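[User] I wish I could look at a protein chain and see how it folds. I have put the entry right below:
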Amino acid sequence: MNSAPDAALLILQSTLTEGQAIAAFRRHDSAWTRRVRGARLRSIARVFVPYYAFHVIAADGRRRQTGLFAVDAVGGTLDPYQFEGSLATLALEQIHSRNALTATLDVETAWPILVDKLRRVAFQGGFWRIRGPRFSVEREPLILHLPYWVGFYADGPRVRLEVLDGVRQSFEGMKARALFEAWLSENTVSAKPHGECPSYQR
């Protein structure tokens, strides 16, 4: 999963500034048992995950609805994104960063993963009120890099991670932590905070 140094990325801007992310980690720490174990937040880094953004059509023979959804292009294990509006309404920008995971899934593999996730959500009553929808793609997907804030905690000789979604502003679970830990095992240097996201000591 190595990424090219300072690769050009089309990113969705984080809804959290670095300071806001630090404050979120602080609140998370105060409500967690980490303080009992003595682990302390040493630094944070903004890291980007590639997603395939699909213009999805859902139809059941009577109704037809469209939406913009995205599935991660690394392993397809993270929760899918649903975006309000179109790509033109998103806060996108192009940057250069080495803090990015590399897409390992091709479009043909990622699409059925997204469809399976959408079917499950539709069955549970989310996204659409369509029974037994059939999904199709309106146009070619776009690769977007979505921001995550990764907190590095010193826990004795070990380093532990916590992952904060930079758009939804929610802390991720085991799947996301495993994804970033696997990437860090191959990207020790580039995973350290860089100029765009300096380290935080407390």
